[in-house]
Amino acid sequence: MKKTAIVLSFLFALIIPSFIFSQGIPDNAKVTGNVQIDAQYYTEDTKLGITDSTLNYRKFGMNGFANLLYTAGNFTAGMRMEAFLNPMLGFDQRFEGVGIPYWFAGYKTGTFQLTAGHFYEQFGSGLILRSWENWMLGYDNSIYGLNAGFSPVSGITLKGLVGVQRYFWQPYEEGNRGIVKGFDGEFDLNQIFPALTDASTRISLGGSFVSKYEKVPTLSYVIDSAYLIDSINWNQQSTYEMNLPYNVGSWAARANLSNGGFNFYAEYAEKANDPNATNNYIFRKGSALYSSLSYSTKGLGIFLSTKWIDNMSYKSKLTESGNPPMLDINYLPAISKEHTYSLASLYPYATQPNGEFGFQGQIDYKLPKETLIGGKYGTLLTVNYSLAKSIEKDTLPDSPITGSLAGTQGYETRFLSVGDLTYYRDLSVLAERKINSKWKLLLGYYNQRYNKNVIEDNIYNDDHIVKTNIAVLDLTYKITRKNSLRMELQGLWSKEDKGDWGALLVEYNVSPKWFFSLQDEYNYGNPAQEMQIHYFNMAFGYTQNTTRFSVRYGRQREGLVCIGGVCRYVPASTGLTLTITSSF
24: alpha, beta or left, given left = phi > 0 and alpha = psi -120 to 50? Predict the structure, then answer.
């Protein structure tokens, strides 16, 4: 971090408290905050091939943050200090350092509010703008600038923002990322029109516009042979320079309708041509459609969602790529279910921004109490089906750059087309029942199809489909009012990739303070016998008021950690992990 950023952060940390205490603490003032420290000590493990050299001689990793929030009437201010010393395995090493990457001050008067500094914002479902943070993913695309909101009349909410996104510790300089500007309007028709005030159907409409300005680099390529494209003769061994756009705009429109237990939401978005590293520098426009329909009543819940994405990677730095992705301006909602059990989440899904059709449907049904099927306390059944497939693409001729589509429209497709290539499919059935006052049981079955080439390597074929069947038994015994014993037994059966797995977890809880657990994931079916490894873990934790300590020792298997379709790769490791969380 440069000196100017350090000085500004220090002044903010110094001036705000000084101002507060010099004026006296208002009666309605409140200070809150939270802290988290994750620390790992790594050990060598010949079974996993981990040595000092593979660890880059870094035996210790620590990620930590502390949030502080001050509120007094219409004024709010806050900051977050972070420390990555060294970043833990699986986190981008560019996070290494200590500083205050996030601070803000905000004020609200009447129906107008303004935030200066760093902030998070979302328009609609996020198809063209969402700034958010997830500590477990090592993901943070907060915006540094100004964010304003205004409600001129009841039912109308307007937002406007301008700023630059966080990029590790780098201060903004022209050329290292772009400037993001956006405007959003939300219109609640039932509040705007008096005749609809008492209507049972609630209707709201919204629209957004977002643009980014980036002083783009000049990308030059050597042409290996003669082409005729766009009526321009490219001679052998010529130089091809792409005329990249400095400004890329996007817009979205949305609608939400609800009546009783029904709720319907739909949003459509388009993005101007935006050649970037994710789409291999093609000049095709992007578009996306996301919709959801839900119904809920006593004992029954139904949820359906679908999305269609075409070339919707939208970043404030066109050359940026990585895992997890950084500098994303938008967010493409994931509609695959996030599973809580370890083997069911062994093969998670990552959203494919270059083209994807997705569908998810879930039914939650509570079998009635005091029935033969429902039992004394009732039984909750959950059925979920998720599907992600390619969209149809008719590839256009290559550009002058041999073997590349860079500089062209890339391909043609039809809106809402569905291709033949399956990226991901997941069917799960769970049954949860309280047997009596002591015992609680959950049974689960999962059937998954995971296209490893597409999701992990961006190779669009079906040469490596991993097919899995997974079973889960989760049994809890309540010993006393405060003591309970829980056991998980899981099995994963597959003929592809790493083969069969088994997992066992035993957890003892002394509510509300202590927990102890033993866990083992055993890859007994790995085709390579030397990789038939036990991934054992021992852990315990203690909670005191709002502070929680947990310690874990054991092995971490490699793989993807995904939240909301955004993923982070975690390498295999062995060692001791300490986590401390606290809030006040």
Answer: left
Map residue 410 onto helix, strand or coil: coil
545: left (phi over 0), alpha (psi -120 to 50) or beta: left
User: Per the structure block, which two tokens stand in for 231?
Assistant: 């009526």
Task: State phi, psi for 555 to the nearest 5 degrees.
Answer: -100, 145
Q: Which amino acid is at 285?
A: K
**Rounded Cα gap, residues 159 and 484, in angstroms:** 49
Per-residue pLDDT of 346-356, as tens digits, reads 999 999 999 99
Contact 60, 71 (CB under 8 A): no
**How would you write 562-575 as a 3-class SS string?**
EECCEEEEECCEEE
Phi-psi region of 464 (alpha: psi -120 to 50; beta: other; left: phi over 0): beta
Which stretches of 124-178 are assigned E, i.e. beta strand? 133-134, 139-140, 143-150, 156-165
- Which residues, in sequence order, are bridge partners of residue 520? 504, 536
Residue 358's alpha-carbon distances to 272, 311, 348, 420, 559, in angstroms, are 23, 15, 14, 13, 23
Contacts of 175 (CB under 8 A, 6+ apart): 215, 217
CA distances from 516 to 5, 81, 260, 507 (A): 44, 31, 44, 6
209 has which bridge partners?
Answer: 183, 251
264-306: per-residue pLDDT in tens?
Answer: 999 999 999 999 999 988 999 999 999 999 999 999 999 999 9
Which residues are CB-contacts of 378 (< 8 A; sequence separation ≥ 6)? 366, 367, 368, 369, 433, 434
In this structure, what token pair is assigned to residue 285? 């426009």
